[in-house]
Design brief:
With 269 residues, this protein is mainly α. The chain has a single domain, classed as Orthogonal Bundle (ABC transporter involved in vitamin B12 uptake, BtuC). The chain contains 13 helices and no strands. α2 packs antiparallel against α12 and α5 packs antiparallel against α6.
Amino acid sequence: MLEIFDDFFVRAMVAGIMVAFVAGPFGCLLTWRRMAFMGETIAHSSLLGVVLGIILGILPQYSIIIVAMIMASVLYLLDKNKGLGRDVSLTVIAHGALGVGLFLISFMPDVRIDLEAYLFGSLLAIDSSDLLMIFFGGGSILLILLYYWRSLVALTISPDLTKAENIAKPHAEFIFTLLIAVLVAITMRITGLLLVSAILIIPAAAARYLSNSPEKMAVIASIIGVLSVSGGLYISLIGDIAGNASIIVVAICLFILSFLASKIIFIKN
């Protein structure tokens, strides 16, 4: 048990904590902007990234990021065009990219793709190169988000007034869309494309009951995400249960507790 704890379990714990910490403020912005399914949409496009990476001879982790950023850009353009509702745009991109990816796979019978690893993640198989990507990639997008934080919060609260007063930094919304794409591509290694939205949205939703300001909610969301990963991986280790599923179950339990805590505080006041 000690040998396991000292090896891949530690790498998984460190990677999960880093991703959860970074995902907190991003999940809050997605929740405020009613874009909860954006992460799932970009995650679905990752399969196309895997296939194109194989065809072009690019490592999947890099081709996934490239395709995710392209799909995020397309989503941004469709959203700004206002010809389609946001939910329609999300559906078209998600299922379109997933369908094209599956279509291309059918033309590569000699290539074996571990779809289960992409669907459900492979947290316990993380190596040192994955840790470096998560550390530098996650750290970079978090720093960029902090730079644009006030602009994005202002655009979320009152987009028309913010644009009229020229308060927001240029291209803040587009930069945020690209940052989400990179974050989703990194997070998929932890949860897989089926559960990527959960680690983004559930901690943010739980933090909403315990906060009264954007910054406080972002911090609490990161803490809840870190607790979810830590608790979920520990349960996975002692119970031989899938790590990503355990993480989401702990996150759901914390969401329920935060909801109940908010109701108790409301009754007392």
